[in-house]
Amino acid sequence: MAGGSTSNGARHKATWHIGGWGNPYEGGGQPGKGIVTYSLSTNRQRPWAGFFTKGVWNSVRRVRNQVLYVVPPFILAYSAMQWAIERNEYLNSKPGRAEFADAEAE
């Protein structure tokens, strides 16, 4: 056969499939030599360790360092919105319509 043999008597080299892009754990292959993986049991993990003694003060410190980057744009946006609301209320009031009545006719 020109395309190759499909019989079971063909020679087959026993290799491991490494997986896509060399990931040894994806294709069920054998992990490489010298690769050491460590894991920690789920009942030994302590995600809240030190939160109440160190985490609260760390959060306070981080908020204090970021307040000058966050608060001024909010103050600017709030004041611009308040000005726009007041201006809109004035333009839709009786004195505002009387002041700009001739501008609408043009």
Task: Give a written overview of the molecule.
With 106 residues, the protein is mainly alpha-helical. It has 3 helices and no strands. It starts with 50 loop residues before the first helix and ends with a helix. Belongs to the UQCRQ/QCR8 family.
Summarize this structure as a short list of keywords or feature phrases.
106 residues; single chain; 3 helices; mainly alpha
Q: What average pLDDT do the residues reach? A: 79
Shape descriptor: elongated
Major sheet attributes: none
Query: What Rg do the Cα atoms give?
Result: 35 Å
Fraction of residues in β-strands: under 5%
| Secondary-structure element order, N to C | HHH
Give the total of beta strands: 0
Give the uncertain stretches in residue-range form.
Answer: none
Report the structural category: mainly alpha
Distance between the termini: 90 Å
Output the number of helix runs.
Answer: 3
User: What is the share of helical residues?
Assistant: 40-55%
